[in-house]
Amino acid sequence: MDNLLNFKDMFKKSVLKMDAFEGVSLVDLLLSLLVAFLIGMFIYYVYQKCYRGVVFSHNYNMTFVLMTIITALIIMTISTNIVLSLGMVGALSIVRFRTAVKDPMDIMYMFWAVSAGIASGAKIYSVAIIGSLVVGATIWWLTRRREATAPYLLIVHYEAAAEEEVKRRVRKMNGTLKSKSVRADITELTVELRIRDDNTAFVGEFSALEGVKDVALVSYNGDYAQ
């Protein structure tokens, strides 16, 4: 019964408060925005350095900085007044984001920016800073680990006379056959390879084989060629 009365008193007090920022001092406001900005810039830097897509979008990367700051502002606003928090939830519920996000990693960066903004707006700076450092270090490590064995598509056009030698070399490299097409007397072979430290000397060896017309090596991210 006492808890119920306390909730009613708290609700009435919150409703009667007209000043939305009564509970936020200027120092807290500036500090939260500063932390949100710095973390947003850190996300911006990590995204720029670890991006492995086809076309890098500077404008899209800028949204992470703004998203972190705006989220911090929202959290500071709704934390001062129950009525404002209910109104903010209602307003945000009608927002629809229709921009297609093709890369799952981009969604992860969005959640990172929102989470950091929430922690900064709630003045839990240790969580925001340490959590962002851990996430950034994890992304950097996973990205560099992936680069150590980068996937490539080897595309070879050759005549029938070179088929056995080409197959022998592909098997030796532990390549995975993706496609093979024959047009007249020319065969096109597409093989996925894992290459360490950008060692592409074998391309010249394939090109030197008798009967090989041309060789192409294309960077490959698992979904599409770049």
Summarize the structure.
The protein has 226 residues and is an alpha+beta fold.
Question: DSSP strand (E) fraction?
Answer: 15-25%
Label the overall shape: elongated
In angstroms, what is the radius of gyration? 28 Å
CA distance, first residue to last residue: 66 Å
Helix count, DSSP H or I runs of 4 or more residues = 8
Helix content: 55-70%
Pfam families: DUF4956
Protein name: DUF4956 domain-containing protein
Keywords: Membrane, Transmembrane, Transmembrane helix
Organism: Brevibacillus brevis (Bacillus brevis)
Describe this structure in words.
The chain has 2 domains: 122 residues, no CATH class; 71 residues, Alpha-Beta Plaits. It is built from 8 helices and 4 strands. A 4-stranded antiparallel beta sheet has the order 2-3-1-4. The longest helix is centred in the first third of the chain and has 25 residues. The radius of gyration is 28 Å and the shape is elongated. The N and C termini lie far apart (66 Å).
How is the secondary structure organized here?
Layout: H1 2-16, H2 26-50, H3 58-78, H4 82-93, H5 104-121, H6 125-148, E1 149-159, H7 163-172, E2 176-183, E3 186-196, H8 202-208, E4 212-219
Antiparallel strand pairs: 1-3, 1-4, 2-3
Protein name: DUF4956 domain-containing protein
Keywords: Membrane, Transmembrane, Transmembrane helix
InterPro entries: DUF4956
Features:
alpha+beta, Alpha-Beta Plaits, 2 domains, four-stranded antiparallel beta sheet, membrane, transmembrane helix, DUF4956
